[in-house]
Amino acid sequence: MSHPIILIGFMASGKSHVARLISKHFDIPVIDLDARIEAACGTSIATVFAAHGEKYFREIETATLHQVLQEAAQKPSVIATGGGIVTNAPNRELLHRAAKDGATIIYLRATPETLASRIRQEPGKRPLIDGDKMLNMEETQERVKVLLEGRRAFYESCATIIIDTNHHDATNVAKEIVEHIPSPYRGEG
Ligand code: S3P
User: Of 65, 86, 127, 136, which one's alpha carbon is 20 to 30 angstroms from that of 57?
Assistant: First the structure.
């Protein structure tokens, strides 16, 4: 049985980028949950939200997480999740179980200010933040704060490691994670 590396954290916390760097370091596949969902739906996450709503997206997200964790138990991999993965109790249960089975679950933590400024670099990509209208920095921060407040405890309770990303770029964050990863991954890259 293999033990996946799973990245969790708010939108724009760097999960996908850091996952690619870890994947390169250990020479293991990266599984990006949102990319899987987009491939399965044949369209972007923003379009899935607009056409079918959040509830529909969350159902697909849970089914995809379940499937991806089964795959990851068979061969080493690094998984980048979507920022809302912890909002559903069944997903948290899946993550808790994965951690018990040996997965390393890393919460990439950042302040609302940092997250808002990163989110604003990719306008229109996050339906829960700026899906309804263009926002200024203050409005973006406000929405991030509200959502993050409701999720913070869930990220923390699902994580086996918490890493602060405010003052670090993705390369440094990936380096720090690699130092935390237990064997058999260590030394494979
Ligand atoms: C979401 C985060 C997004 C994507 C969807 C919902 C969320 O992923 O799954 O827009 O609820 O936080 P990223 O964290 O990659 O932006």
Answer: 136
Sheet holding 30-32, edge to edge: 30-32, 78-80, 5-8, 104-109, 161-164
Q: Give SS3 for 161.
A: strand
Buried/exposed code over 58-91 (b: 16+ C-beta within 10 A; e: otherwise): bebbbebbeebbeebbeebbbbbbbbbbbbbeeb
Pick the residue whose CA is nearest to atom 10 on ligand 1. Answer: 126
Query: pLDDT tens across 108-159, in order?
Result: 999 999 999 999 999 989 999 998 888 999 999 999 999 999 999 999 999 9
Q: pTM, whole model, 2 decimals?
A: 0.96
Nearest atom of ligand 1 to the alpha carbon of 127? 10
d(CA 31, CA 77): 7
CA of 9 to the centre of ligand 1 (A): 9
**Terminal alpha carbon distance of the chain:** 19
Residue 7 DSSP SS3? strand
What residues flank ligand 1, with Cβ below 6 Å?
A: 11, 34, 45, 82-84, 126-128
Going by C-alpha positions, the residue among 98, 43, 33 that lies closest to residue 63 is: 33
Question: What atom of ligand 1 comes closest to residue 33's alpha carbon?
Answer: 9
CA gap 55, 168 in Å, rounded: 34
